[in-house]
Structures are given as C-alpha cells and as structure tokens.
DNA sequence: ACAATATTCCAAATAACATTGGAGAATACA
DNA sequence: TGTATTCTCCAATGTTATTTGGAATATTGT
C-alpha cells in the first residue's frame, strides 16, 4: 500500500474512532441515557447524574464534538439534546451488547435493577394493542418533566418518588404496566415491585420510552394529566 | 438517591463503557473491519493493518476483554474472529454514524475512497435478483483468503492487485458488479474505476460482504473458482 | 450600568491508554 | 532434546483523558 493511501486510511479510522471515544466513558453514557428522554439544561443533567457542572459541560462538549448531541440557548440556560434518533439506537446497542456479552456487565445491571425478567415484562406490541383497554393502566414513573416532554398516549404520570403516596389513584381491579427511561432504568422495576407488594397486578414495559419511540409507536407531548 | 444505589448505577455504566472503550481506537476499529471478513491470525492482522505484532496482540486482547472477539489456537498460531454477527452491526453503525454526522469523517472517507456514489452502487436486493443472470459477473476483489472464507454465490475471485493483469477473463459484453470488505473498503471502488477506464461496464456493490451477510443473503464458503 | 445566574474556558493534577522492543511461554517438528 | 515459530507478557515511554476549582463570558432583569 502506498504511504499516502495508508495515511488516508488511518485518518478515516481515526475519525470513526471519535464516535467510539464519545461512547467510552460512563459519565457520557449516563448523560446520553438522560438525554434520550428529552432536552435538558447542563445544570439539570449535572444534578441528575451526580456530576460537577464544569465536568458535565466538558463531557457534553465532547459529545457535541462527536456529533451525538446538539444544543440551543434559551436565555441564560443551554439545553442539550440528542442529535438524532440514531443516537438512541447506537447507545442502546452498546448497552445491550455489553449486557449480553459481558458477564460483569450483566451482573452489574442485575445488581442495580434486580431481576427484571422475573417481573414478566410486557412487550411493546402487546401493550400497544391494549392501550385502549379500560382494564389496563399505563403508568409513567419518570420525573414529571420527562413525561411532559413525551409519553405513551393515555399514560398516567406518577413519578417514582410519589408512587407510594398516590396508590389510591389506582383502581384495584386493573392491570398496571409501568415504564420508565429504558431497559437499564430502575424506576419501573422498582415501581412494579412496590405495587405488587401492595397487592396490585403490575408488570413493567420491556424497554422504556426511547425504545417505544424508536419502534415508531405513538408518543404524546404535553403536561401531566 | 442512596449512596449504594448510585454506586451500583455507576458500576453499570462503567461496564457499558467497556464496550465503548473497545471502539475508541482507530487501530482496533481497523482490526474489527478485517475480522468481519473471517478469522485471522495475529501475524496476518498485524501485516494487513501495518501494526507491530505486540501491539496487535494487545489490541486484540482488549477487544476480547470487551467481548467483541474470541480466539482459537491452531498449532503455533492463534486465530481471532468476531464474537458474533452483532459486532459487525455495531461497528458498522459507529462507522455510518461518523460518516453521516461528522463532516471531517465524511471528508476523510471521501479522501480515501473517492466519490463512491458517483459510481452508482448496486443495492443488495438488486444484485441478489440478478445473481442467476448470465449477463452479470460478480467480482470479489478481496484477497483470496477472504474469498475462501465466504463469498457471494457465483462470484469470481480476482484480488484487487491482480485485476489489471486478468482483464482478459472478463467477457466484454457483461455488466460487472464488484464488491469488497464493506462500505469503507477501497478495493471495489478502485476496481470499478479501473474497469471503466478499460471500457467495461462496472458498478460497485453498496456495502460489502459483511453487510450482505447481515442482511441474511446467501454466502458460499470454499476455494477459488 | 450593575448584579445574578448559567455555562464555558483554563490550568493543573491525576489517571488511563498506546506503543515499542525484548523476554518469556506454548507449540510443532526434526 | 533442541530449535524455529507465533504469540503474549512486561516494563518503559510518551500521549491523551478525566476531573477539579476558579476565572471569564454571555444573558437577563433591576
């Protein structure tokens, strides 16, 4: 191979590696997971991910340089969002690959989430078919702001930290399907375990809102009901 | 969030990031691109990727730790291969994302490959339909060993560095479709440009053998015809 | 113009990674 | 057993990332 051809080839792979580098840090992956719910300011992200603001800003900057996120300014705040739906898919693929091929990752996920399979997750298509069924309550247990940015049509917003206090709102004879940020979010599995302990019939949605959205299923934006 | 819950969450994202880290280096991405053609020994990989053997070994080791490749020993040689077909898909997604969202990556790819779109690539399905058409010659311009490890049924093996000397084997009135390692491999575009300069009617296949395989289309293993 | 707020930029310390040459280990074969 | 081959391991080097606190910047509202 000619020297300049090799140089060009190396340059191309170096460019490809920029995307890999963006995915090579746990803090950045967590930020991407949060941004998959909708746009957020730097301060909100720093708070939720337990990071310093200056560090959050630096990591977001790195993500932007790799083309994974974009930002807009609104007054004094800067809101970041995923650059495209593909980013959700890419991040999801990395997570799923790790969880399926690395024993340590599977173990870490289980240690954080518990045994989600034991809760018999409901598939997307199954839930979609039953959306208009009065016997099913769909529960969005993410923070209010994420619900407002987009949720499954007809879903009830009960943020995970309010669930225990709002059980009275849920009818006794209904089947509850709880969903949250994604397959590696703890809110829905925890909610289902709490509901079952109180005698409700509850199951988590397999995957969360980003997967639902990627599958092309309907999403409603708007304030809480 | 409780401290131990945060620790578990961080541990999970650290595990996910191991896969990202594996994709964060140009040398490793190039190795994965080569391994998508079939298994290879360390020495072969080092030679093709213009790397030292010790470095190649270290990078393969890193890929194995992230679950992307596995190896088997055959006598004095150790052959590495992709751990699963998903790895091809994952790497392809990273490459395509970079090429579509990063201007510098698109530019680097174009600088290495030339303007592939100008060569009017043939789609997989279109080629599949015409496989039994006598008027179409499918040309595999990868190295012989990669052809032997798997190729499109009926394809003719003419490694890129032998093409100029073997033009006589190609009938004049036929349409030629050349394919190689993938969308970022230079062999097929170069072959098409050479063939056109010599008066042949030639087009590249869009994507290469790994994409063809991922799409579930048939692949034949065996020696050169 | 000034103060308050959110974010970015900067400099510096620490940690992790990439790469190399050479030593060591496993295998095959005479 | 001895030697050649292939690969891995190791130690040392330079490079690149990560994280932090504080200064600088941009915007809003008084």
Can you describe this structure?
Two copies of one chain form a homodimer. By secondary structure, chain A is of the alpha/beta class. The first copy, chain A, has two domains: 3-87, Arc Repressor Mutant, subunit A (Orthogonal Bundle), CATH 1.10.10.10; 114-214, 3-Layer(aba) Sandwich (Oxidized Rhodanese, domain 1), CATH 3.40.250. Helices cover 48% and strands 13% of the residues of chain A. The first copy, chain A, contains ten helices and seven strands. In chain A, the strands form two sheets. In chain A, strands 5-4-6-7 form a four-stranded parallel β-sheet, covered by helices on one side. Chain A has a three-stranded antiparallel β-sheet with strand order 1-3-2. In chain A, strand 6 (175-179), helix 9 (187-197) and strand 7 form a beta-alpha-beta unit. Chain A is globular. The model of chain A has no long low-confidence stretch (mean pLDDT 95). Chains A and B meet through helix 1, helix 2, helix 5 and helix 6 of A and helix 1, helix 2, helix 5 and helix 6 of B. Chain A binds a DNA duplex (30 and 30 nucleotides) through residues 21, 24-25, 27, 41-43, 51-59, 61-62, 73, 75-78.
